Amino acid sequence: MGGQRGDSRYPEISTLASAIHEMFAAHPFRIPDVRESLSSLILKFSELRDWAAVPVPEHIAEALSGRRIALIGFTSDHADGVCAALELVGRPSEFISNHGRS
Q1: Which tens digit of pLDDT belongs to each residue from 59-89?
Q2: Is residue 67 part of a domain?
Q3: What is the pTM (predicted TM-score) of this model?
Q4: Any idea what the Cα angle at residue 46 is, between residues 37 and 91, rounded to 5°?
Q5: Sign of CA dihedral 59, 51, 77, 95
Q6: Domain range holding 30?
Q7: Which residues contact residue 96 at a Cβ distance below 8 angstroms, ignoring those fewer than 6 apart?
Q8: 36 occurs within a structural domain
């Protein structure tokens, strides 16, 4: 599994991952137990993601205020992420796509 066993930065995630690893090592393993542990692990990652959301610094928000911004060459996923970040600073998203044009 990614990271070392007992990683002190994320002890709950490390403990859950180790338990899941041990479940798979035991034969036969119980699918309901694995499902429950994987669900718990997903929740822990979700909590970590929510905790890590950092507000946009004020100086960046001010620099973007009133400006038009073009996103060129981004994949759809990356463009969506940039647009979501821009919306956090109050910039509405307007899309002009030439997807499929040469």
Answers
A1: 887 887 777 778 888 888 788 777 777 777 7
A2: yes
A3: 0.43
A4: 165
A5: negative
A6: 11-52
A7: none
A8: yes
